Amino acid sequence: MLSSSNALTPEMLVPRIGDYLVNRGFITIEDLVDALATQRELEQTKKPQLIGQILVSAGKIDQSILDQAITEHIIDLKDALETSNKRLESRVAERTTELEAALKKINELNELKSNFISNISHELRTPLTHLKGYLNLFASGDLGPITKDQNKALSVMNRAYIRLEKLIDDLLMFTFAEYEEVNITKSKFNMIALVAEIISTYKNSTPKRTIYLRILPEETSLWVNADQKKIAWVITHLIDNAIKFSDPNTRITVFLQHNAEIVKTTVSDQGSGIDKDQFEQIFEPFHQLDGSSTRKAGGVGLGLALSKKIIEAHTSRLNVRSEVGIGSQFDFSLKRLII
Predict the structure, then answer these.
(1) What is the CA 205 to chain-centroid distance, rounded?
(2) Which domains does the chain have, with CATH numbers?
């Protein structure tokens, strides 16, 4: 229970009622100063009183005048609050309009960027096709005999062509995936056979590097239902990254671990490793761990961003574990089919 001196009154709802009474001419400054002094004395005796009640008790104003002043002050405060709310709502509406316009502009710029990349990629394909055709003609000897040195030069040109073709394919896939869901065409296939086939291609392209395959526990076939072409693309990219960021004398291993429900694919290297602070950044489009002009590893920084999209389209997740100076592991899991 509240004591009579602490009972709830309308005066508690309004601040600085004394100043309001002075401004309205109901009391003088001197009356307010005396009332404030009395209030401080009462607080020291643990009998606090509101300033309005002190003025009424001192005969400076009538209770009816105090009630009138409190009512007017509450109405003024209410009007001020409504005006402030309207200003705030107006400002929020203005900011919302500004943000919507900015977002629209960003979307337009992103679409323009995407269309530009897509158009450039398509335009590059035509001369690239001619280049590939003539390289094959030279290499096959259809345009005349070539020397050993010329054959080495053609091999270098062919590797450059393959790299450029891959970059263009990455750009095209990225521009499609940027604004559309990744289209997944599922089929049943054997992951062991797929990974073994991918690894075999590196015997020709990078004969100095040996990619190892380990199946844990040992098994002859591991069937999944997924987009074989896109899963192959992801595994190939992860192996390419492992090659780019590790020394030739270090080990690269593709692990296939499985149980009755999933097949987990892991590409492990003993390369330079990635700082934990950069784990999220490496999956951003066009991100390069080494952004300097003297960086050793090639690429435009789309591979991991695309790989992440492809794996997520399979309702899975591309995980990374890495330690600087030790190496990196990238893995994803697919549901296993028991056949």
Answers:
(1) 35
(2) 4-61 (no CATH), 112-179 (1.10.287.130), 187-337 (3.30.565.10)
Q: How far is Cα 259 from Cα 211, in angstroms, rounded to an integer?
A: 24
Amino acid sitting at position 136: N
Proportion of the chain in helix, strand, coil states, percent, rounded to 5: 60, 15, 30
Those residues whose C-beta lies under 8 Å from the C-beta of residue 6, and which sit 6 or more positions away, are 48
Task: Catalogue the long-range contacts made by 62-66 (C-beta closer than 8 Å, 24 or more residues apart).
Answer: 65/26, 66/11, 66/17, 66/21
Tokens matching residue 187: 């089929």
Is it the case that residue 295 has pLDDT exceeding 50?
no
- 332 pLDDT exceeds 90? yes
Q: What tens digit of pLDDT does each residue of 66-99 get?
A: 888 888 888 888 888 899 999 999 999 999 999 9
* Radius of gyration for the alpha carbons in the chain, expressed in angstroms and rounded: 38
| Amino acid of residue 88 | L
